[in-house]
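hi! just following up on the protien thing from before. the input was this:
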Amino acid sequence: CGDSGDEKQDSSWDKCDFETSLCKALPEFNLQPGWIRRNGQSGMGPPYSDHNGNESAYFLSLSSEMQSSSAALRTNVFLPTDEEHLCQIRFHYWVSQMSGALMVGLQKHSEETLTNIWQVSGEQRNQWNVNTITISSTEKYEV
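and the predicted 3d structure came back as:
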């Protein structure tokens, strides 16, 4: 359901809100240049709050100095999925003054290439959006 009330919240379910760190799924050393952890009170321009309207809540943002062609975030390694163990990644994103694309990719450990599994470009500017991706992989992978 829309409020995630049907989500099973047990020891295998992780929620990431960036309030104290980068979450277990996003290790500190994988925060590549260009990404910063900030909140709406940072004086850096929009967004001025998180997706819930909280001005003091933290989120990840691309630095305004980031002028290179790309910046990436990479998760820790996830174990293979099966019928009983699925991986769903739900994320909120803000698109502002974007001329490129925001992409989510999947890299299986047996492959050297990253497969694009979701993408958005230059639409719905200056508002928070949400997306949920369900991942199925018979081997270890990173997102």
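Residues 77-142 form one domain.
The mean pLDDT is 79.
cheers
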